[in-house]
Design brief:
alpha+beta; Aspartate Aminotransferase, domain 1; 9 helices; 4 strands; 54% helix; elongated
């Protein structure tokens, strides 16, 4: 994960190991990770060794329990069940087929619902970082409610019907699995 995102590397880092990470990224980083290199000094200066632990304890673990309890009802499953932050990644391809939406459509719908999530090729990613640590306790109930709302949607729900009527280009093409 060190190559894909700086967050997992920082999860196990402390201020004393950041110089190693900075040197490593400057030598091997490509693509989006090379952009991350420019932010490393900021992370070094602002690193809170308890932040990712708070993300895991106060957001991820309760959210995983909530997902475990509801995933069958929603018709989704983990792509891979995470063993640490910063993301929860769900396979929502069947849910998208059920709703008649492609990935871009579901992403746009969640944005309009005020719950933006990353969705691509039938995979939904819930980002858990970026929130102030002091707000983790108060954010969790709202996050769980929004996840439940968006994953409980049914094809005949007025919001889905109206969305597809207004945006037919977000309808899933039944014969093209990659549309999800």
């Amino acid at each position: 994960s060190m190559y894909a995102s700086g967050q997992p590397a920082l999860y196990t880092a402390d201020k004393n190991s950041l110089p190693f990470l900075m040197d490593h990224y400057q030598r091997v980083a490509t693509g989006p990770t090379s952009t991350f290199v420019h932010d490393l000094q900021y992370y070094h200066d602002t690193l809170d060794d308890t932040y990712m632990r708070s993300v895991e304890d106060k957001l991820q673990l309760p959210m995983l329990q909530f997902i475990d309890e509801n995933k069958d009802r929603w018709g989704v499953d983990y792509l891979v069940r995470p063993d640490g932050p910063p993301f929860i990644t769900l396979d929502v391809a069947d849910k998208l087929r059920e709703l008649g939406l492609n990935s871009k459509g579901f992403r746009e719908l969640t944005l309009r619902l005020g719950s933006p999530v990353l969705v691509n090729d039938g995979v939904l990613r819930i980002a858990l970082t970026g929130f102030d640590k002091k707000e983790h306790d108060s954010l969790l109930p709202e996050m769980l409610q929004r996840i439940d709302f968006m994953l409980s949607l049914q094809p005949d729900d007025p919001i889905v019907v109206k969305f597809l009527e207004a945006n037919p280009f977000y309808a899933a093409a039944a014969s093209v699995p990659s549309e999800y």
